[in-house]
Write a structure and sequence with these properties.
Layout: E1 32-36, E2 46-53, E3 64-65, E4 70-76, E5 78-83, E6 86-91, E7 95-98, E8 106-109, E9 116-123, E10 128-132, E11 137-141, E12 147-150
Antiparallel strand pairs: 1-2, 2-9, 3-10, 4-7, 4-9, 5-6, 5-8, 10-11, 11-12
Amino acid sequence: MANGTYVFKASSIEESTGSAYPDAYQYVTKDRYVRRLTDPAHLTNYAVNLVRLAPGGQSSCRHAHSKQDEFVYMMEGELVLNTDAGRQTVTVGDCVGFPAGTGDAHHFVNETDQDASFLVIGDRSSNDTVAYPDDDMAAKLDADGKLIITHKDGSPY
């Protein structure tokens, strides 16, 4: 391939588990498996993750970004999307957009007995804040790209 072009198989990237959440919230993502595809492609302006949720799995705590857009493409299975408007089932081929700044918090839950997979694409805007309306968490991505998670009152974990 041309210099600066990176070709690889998603399956060659190891699945990771866990999250940057404080210990009290690690249980939320215990059945979530992520292949972070952007870094092997040497891309820096946005992130692409291939996510697999095992039965009973949850993508994250329900959250909303102030500056970062997110886009999801369902690849396998069926999930329940929970937003401020309520619950909605999404299946293979469905696309979901989460525009930044709307305050509409969201996450996915696998309520089936089969794995479900989706592709998440999001930008990497600095100084993004993340609201978690259901949990005692707040997050900020600082100008250097470091994620800082605190209690809602700003006190550290």
